[in-house]
Amino acid sequence: MEEKEISQAVIGRLPRYFRYLGELRDEGTERVSSQELSDIMQVTASQIRQDLNNFGGFGQQGYGYNVEFLYEEIGKILGLDRKYDLIIIGAGNLGQALANYMNFERRGFLFRGIFDNNPVLYGKKIRGIEVQSMECMEQYVLDNHIDIAVLTIPKSEAAEVAEKLIRCGIKGIWNFAHLDLKVPEGVQVENVHLSDSLMKLSYNISRFQNEK
Amino acid sequence: MEEKEISQAVIGRLPRYFRYLGELRDEGTERVSSQELSDIMQVTASQIRQDLNNFGGFGQQGYGYNVEFLYEEIGKILGLDRKYDLIIIGAGNLGQALANYMNFERRGFLFRGIFDNNPVLYGKKIRGIEVQSMECMEQYVLDNHIDIAVLTIPKSEAAEVAEKLIRCGIKGIWNFAHLDLKVPEGVQVENVHLSDSLMKLSYNISRFQNEK
User: Fold this and answer.
1) Which of chain A's residues have a Cβ under 8 Å away from the Cβ of B80?
2) What is the full per-residue pLDDT of chain B (212 aa) written as tens digits?
3) Does B210 reach chain A within 8 Å, measured CB to CB?
4) Contact A188 B199 (CB under 8 A)
5) Within this chain, do residues A89 and A173 fall inside the same structural domain, yes or no?
6) What are the angstrom distances between the C-alpha of A150 and each of A6, A40, A164?
7) ipTM of the complex
8) Angstrom distance (rounded) from CA B24 to CA B9
9) Which residue of A lies nearest to B12 if distances are taken between CA atoms?
């Protein structure tokens, strides 16, 4: 499959397809047309056909898409047919919220450790795993072949911590610190800026009020 | 200013401009060229010029952009020149993390209340504000003219709670529940799906490993 040519924009939409197909599957739906998918996802049917054609066209004229098959295939494309060992750096509220979010585990993201530099938290159990000192982080990553680190630490510490993790062979960083982390080629990063979506919301609220 | 014609794709990029310009401003930078902005933001200079032209071209040939002015203008476009009263529904780890995130307050999002249906949490103070029963939510929204509700509650409860909030006149919903909330026209919603970005990360990790 020629995955290399798929644009990040399409990739960015795949998790949403995956979610909706997962719901259809859970409801027992066996097949779905691009028009039906369009109605529930509020995306045009032609966009859906175009996106899914990137992966070799799972649909058949007059039949639509096989839900289970398409769900599985998109899951494979998203790399969800394997397991990822994941640690969380920062055991504050956000770190704990993510650790407790069981759904990630279901998708193959296995919560293996959590680290903080606040001694008050050392030994506290989160989902059965004790918070460790950040001084133990590097050795832990090396010993346990951790794939993904989730950063829920302040912006001021993020770059240095990321550098340490990269030296220890981390493959991906899911970054919630308030900066766009820059990483060397071969390391993947997703920067999550929660406030960006809040600002989109304020834009839409104020625009709607100006229109009235 | 003809804001209506700006695409959501451009709007979606504005918070990022706003963040970078804010950093430049905090560092005391007075002006910046589209090329410099391109280097730090890792977006092409032509994309930057095109995006900012939507708002009437703040740049001047040979001078670049006035950082302070552009920052302020984008802030206004994003609706950040006014205050928003905000409540959080769900006082779990994620709700508490968002309540404690001071940066939102700086941007004009004022944390006014937090609600949960777990009696153990009632009266617990978060940023000086007591957790209230969800039964008090509707009256509170009505009495205090709340603009935005943040939903950090399970998927199963989200649609019903959103409906109540909308009946009480809420203007925007920042939704972290794991579904795409559908709301009537005139109400704004931003659905945040944290797992979508985690799946993008797993895609990039697995693609990189397949390429090797």
Assistant:
1) 199, 202
2) 444 467 878 888 999 999 999 999 999 999 998 899 999 998 899 998 888 877 655 666 677 888 998 899 999 999 999 999 999 999 999 999 999 987 788 899 999 999 999 999 999 999 999 999 999 999 999 999 999 999 999 999 999 999 999 999 999 999 999 999 999 999 999 999 999 999 999 999 998 887 76
3) yes
4) no
5) yes
6) 26, 32, 13
7) 0.91
8) 24
9) A200
